[in-house]
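> @MW can you paste both from yesterday?
MW: sure, first one:
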Amino acid sequence: MTTATVNIEPALAALAAALRGEGPAVELSAGPDGSPVVELVETPGFEDGAVVVRTSGSTGAPKATVLTVDALAASSMATAMALEGEGQWLLALPVQYVAGVQVLVRSLFAGTRPWAMDLSGGFTPEAFTAAALELTDKIRFTSLVPTQLQRLLEAPTVETLAALRRFNAILLGGAPASAKLLAAARDAGVRVVATYGAAETCGGCVYDGVPLDGVEVKISAEGRIMLGGATIAAGYLGGTDLTAAAFAEDDGVRWYRTNDLGELSADGTLTVLGRADDVVITGGVKVSAAHVQTELERLDGVRAAFVAGVPSAEWGQALAAYVVLADRSPEAADAFTARLASGNAGPLAGALVPKTVLTAEELLMLPNGKPDRLGMTFRLDARHRGK
């Protein structure tokens, strides 16, 4: 029988030394039993680097992002202010990615003892519930991705729901959360904060559309989201050109240029509209894959969806959808595909109807909980076969 939590003391010790400036930068990875493996990393050109985290690699090769002590401190302080307190954290995400390592970093700055869930057998509601019961502080936090939260809300046990309700806040990031999932969490009495950010911003830096204290947001001329302020990374290890392309200084503010499109309301609330590269030109019509994905997820019986453009001899690009249905039977898949083709799917009509649909039990995910965009696009391309 596995234990509910794993040993994170060596990782905490190495991180503490790096944050005090007494040791080299730290990069964490997961060992065979799920416990963190510490690698001490030199960061030439970034002498104040404390932590190195890899970007997700959801659309290409991961980049080694250097986070400084000052950036991590600013992020931790702003997070505590937004959550109205410092408390005990449960690590339920892979420690090698920014959302995971930040659980440990925030705990060190707060002086609280974190617990790390045993992920060696994968993420399950039972394992999460057991780990959550290890927490002893009255103020509790954790970070999850949408897929994890959905599994927890669908768990049949009252113990899992009770464990979720005991968290003062659950930071939800890594991928867009559907309105359906957020509503289900609210209805269940679970306090969820939808976060937006990246490894290059020390993780989530916009909570429920509102920038954290010290974080600045602006929209570039082409509509891309620009994130600035004290939480921005120093750059990429061994990637001078990549650093120059992604980061900039303007009037003393350091900015990170994201790959996402967005808009700001009059009161400064950010709405993320989707990726800048998700526009599919099909039959001469420009279609936002993110918009089609959102509309698919609003349909009854759809648990999750991913939409991409694939090569097409007839259309140039064809919309293709990877869809997870609540009913996993072949009959349900056939009925859903027929419903889309008939135009009986709400606003999805004409150019917005995917030409190819692949149903599956779950979306393909990367270890950090983000959708595996490349993997699903490859499968959709193979399904469509260029026609």
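MW: second:
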Amino acid sequence: MTVVSSVKDLDKLTMTFVAEFAAPVDRVWQVWADPRKLERWWGPPTWPATFERFEFEPGGQVRYHMTGPDGTKARAWWTITAVEAPHRLEFDDGFADDNGEPVDPKDITHGVVTLEANGAGTRMTTVSTFVSAEQLERMAAMGMEEGMRLAMGQIDIVLKE
């Protein structure tokens, strides 16, 4: 598995994942920048993602859904807040309604992805910051930590193609 650590920090209101890949930074960047590659790993294996809107630039809007084994669609959105290719991506993230629009624009997490060379490979650090301890605990109870570990565990396959 590519995830080397995951830490839930209630004091800082964060969940941090560190993963390492045997690929250069620019290749790992593409698993975020290319929506077709992102679809191959975003979401656990039993909940694949489909990106319907993908504006990969500051202020850009992203709309997607994950489809569960029984056909249930869980919709979500991002607003891209920073793109510093190929080393840093930031976005606000939340749940969406059936039209792909935010359910509660105040119930968001802020994601920061950093990529850095690590020997011949890349270290990817993903930090999600929550608005409250209650939100962090709710997301943890929904399986976010295990879901992200499983999702990121699929990146190696995408990088080999």
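> thanks! The mean pLDDT is 95.
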